[in-house]
Structure formats: structure tokens, C-alpha cells
């Protein structure tokens, strides 16, 4: 994979906290399935944080 500048990495909005998060190397093969920015948000997916 070619090196990509940090500012050009894909981003998504977390379904729990509604904050943007950026692609990480560990998500390379599952990026299409990633919905939450962290384990904390994934565990609290039924609770919506007030931003």
C-alpha cells in the first residue's frame, strides 16, 4: 500500500458519540464494518452521548 498523508485518511462519524474518527491501520481489512470510534462507544452503543 502506498503511503497516504494523514490529512487524506478516510473518516467516519461514530454512531454513539457523533464525533469523527480516522482510519487506523488495524482496521484496514474491516473498515467497512467499523461503526464506533472506541471500545467504550461500542460497549455503550445503546446510550447516546450528548456532544
Low-confidence stretches: none
Strand arrangement, major sheet: 1-2
How much helix is in the residues?
A: under 10%
Total number of helical segments?
1
Strand percentage = 5-15%
How many strand elements?
A: 2
Walk me through the structure.
The protein has 51 residues and is mostly loops. The protein is 10% helix and 12% strand. The protein is built from 1 helix and 2 strands, in the order ββα. A two-stranded antiparallel ribbon has the order 1-2. A hairpin with a 6-residue loop joins β1 and β2. The N and C termini lie far apart (35 Å).
Which key terms come to mind for this protein?
1 helix; 51 residues; elongated; 2 strands; little secondary structure
List the helices and strands and how they pair.
Layout: E1 11-13, E2 20-22, H1 39-43
Antiparallel strand pairs: 1-2
Put the structure in a nutshell:
This protein has 51 residues and is low in regular secondary structure. It has one helix at 39-43, and strands at 11-13, 20-22.
